[in-house]
Amino acid sequence: MQPHTLSIGGATYDIFVPLDRDTVQSGVTNTPAFTLPLGNKIRVKNVVETCGGGASNTAVGLARLGCHAGFCGVVGDDQWGEALRRNFEQEGVDCSCLTVVEKEISSFSIILSAGSGERVILYDPGTNDHLHDVTFDREHAGKTNWVYLNHIQQETCVIEDDIIKMLSVESGPKLTWNPGGCQIDVGISAKKNCLLLAHTHLLQLNKQEALQFTKKKTVEDALQVLLEEGVQIVLITDGKNGSVACDSQHIYRCPVPEENTVVDTTGAGDAFGTGVTWGLATGRSLPEALKAGTINATSVVGAVGAQAGLLTETEMLRRLKETPLHVDIQPL
After folding, report:
1. Fewer CB within a 10 Å sphere, N or C end of the chain?
2. What is the per-residue pLDDT for 117?
3. What pLDDT does 189 receive?
4. Which structural domain range is residue 118 located in?
């Protein structure tokens, strides 16, 4: 039987604008930057409009992998909100916990892409700011098998109390947590973060976030301190360098496939977390779950948008057999 999941967080309408490589130059700190001279008219082509947002991506990803996946978030009653709702319906995502706010603008992003994975995201959180106590159904969430808490806005952090109470119940769901900026900024010592970490089955961060969240200088130290906070599995991604995870006994390192075409990195982290969560929720080992996350993320970065490359369960099972990925396992 496939697990019931609920993704909590944002849904965003994404507009991808591809720019020529000659618009990318070294900035003041030698960091590559888009250079768009004021007053110029720059022609673009192949603009792509698609659905995105952390919770939207993970809900769609889990639904494609065969889970009974739900979405908990807020959209407006505008054309973008309608497109997001229609996408959920087409993907088979349960929208019982979706709230529509009248006369408000849905979250949207304009993504400037250099065509080789580099991008700049201009965004307006829109109605994502409206996810709080009134719009969060704790009772419904508590009946699921697995909750996926994605990046949330600062105003949404008020629902953390409800989530902690829900997870504290003996028969409560397991939690995948991908902390947002406001949670990472205050660090692991913040009271609510401590309580959430103690109830987290899978914690997902990228390398920069992990070091900032823990105030540590190395990934190894970050892994150790997060385990000490009560997290059962800590997962840290590092782009082309692959990922590292640990539980109470071992450290697992998973590379990325050698043949890996990168078109657009938007949604790669969500795809990775979705694959790992699906693996664990369906009873697979952590090494197998890491392979699933890597394969899902690799597929997503090969297409424009956060959802186009998300794999179905049939595709995932086939690629798990065909993709030569060796997960290195060492004692903790």
Report:
1. N
2. 63
3. 93
4. 7-23+45-331
